[in-house]
Amino acid sequence: MTKTYKEIQGDGGSDVAGQIAGLQGRLRDRMAAVKCKIAVMSGKGGVGKSTVTANLAAALAARGAAVGVLDADVYGPSLAQMFGLRGRQLTYDSQGVQPPVTASGIKVMSMDFFLADGKTPVVWDGPQQEAFAWKGMLEMHTLREFLTDTDWGELDYLLIDLPPGTSQFATLTDLLGKPDGTVVISIPTAVSRLVVQRSISMITEVLKLPVLGVVENMSAYYCGGCDSERPLFNGPEITDYGGTPVLGRIPFDPRMAEASDAGTPFVESHALEPPAAAFLTLATELKTRVSPAPA
């Protein structure tokens, strides 16, 4: 006959079940002040997911929303650099960890703030035997602490930038339950569409969660000098993602990479350029699909 943890005698007073319940309660309390939690993910790496996240956050902030961004890529954090926040010291008070804030008011939390410098890797200290098992638990614990212990305050949108693949998306839903929306990033190539459609199938068919839509990044090449768009990839235009709507198409502009390296989202540094306008249109589209409830 099987027993639950609570029925097992002699746990040494650790009360693991009570500790877990307490953590879950703290997480619910913290997230209660966040009106819309949006997961940004892609099954494919190299599609500019973090660039889209940073500029979408900037576009939402420009539209008057209170925005926070969680860099959930534990091993390859990049958003601190993209927002110009690398090297910021975290501070603590009675409300929790105070996240660094950009000039436009975007709150950011990332593993980058815990690393000594740009060369420091993330290495878990523990026994190497069966490391595949306990490393996953540590990753989940880290994500939970970022969500629970950070003083996010009242937010209209919390964008959660997930690493490539679907494993961390499943971890996120284990922690939060159903997110208010999921945005999937792709580029207009057959390979990317194939991988992205598999990710969408995992979310909708296995996890039984809805996807708001696809953002097609690098949809064209924008020539700033000639003020025109040209195809960036050869081959037929990708227009279908298995029936999932396309929320927006973002043209590639080389200055976008320069802006990320400089620590200012393109939407802020080149606000009048067409690629920035595409992000602003995307923010408007997102707000129509997932709008914060009025206070």
Secondary structure blueprint with pairings:
Blueprint lengths: L15 H16 L2 E8 L7 H14 L4 E5 L7 H4 L8 E3 L2 E3 L8 E4 L20 H19 L5 E7 L5 H10 L4 E6 L3 H17 L6 E11 L4 E3 L15 E7 L1 H9 L3 H4 L4 H16 L6
Parallel strand pairs: 1-6, 1-7, 2-5, 2-6, 7-8, 8-10
Antiparallel strand pairs: 3-4, 8-9
Structure description:
- It is a single chain.
- This protein has 295 residues and is an alpha/beta fold.
- It has a single domain, classed as 3-Layer(aba) Sandwich (Rossmann fold), CATH 3.40.50.
- The chain contains 9 helices and 10 strands.
- Strands 1, 2, 5, 6, 7, 8, 9 and 10 form an 8-stranded mixed sheet that branches. The protein has a two-stranded antiparallel ribbon with strand order 3-4.
- Helix 1 (16-31) packs across helix 4 and helix 2 packs across helix 9 (274-289).
- The longest helix is centred in the middle third of the chain and has 19 residues, at 131-149.
- The termini are far apart.
- 40% of the residues are buried.
In brief:
This protein is of the alpha/beta class and 295 residues long.
- Count of strand segments: 10
Low-confidence stretches: none
Q: What is the C-level CATH assignment?
A: Alpha Beta
**What is the terminal separation in angstroms?**
50 Å
Total helices: the number is: 9
Average pLDDT rating: 85
Q: State the helicity in percent bands.
A: 25-40%
> What is the strand content?
15-25%
Assign the CATH superfamily. Answer: P-loop containing nucleotide triphosphate hydrolases
Structural class: alpha/beta
User: What fold name goes in the CATH topology slot?
Assistant: Rossmann fold
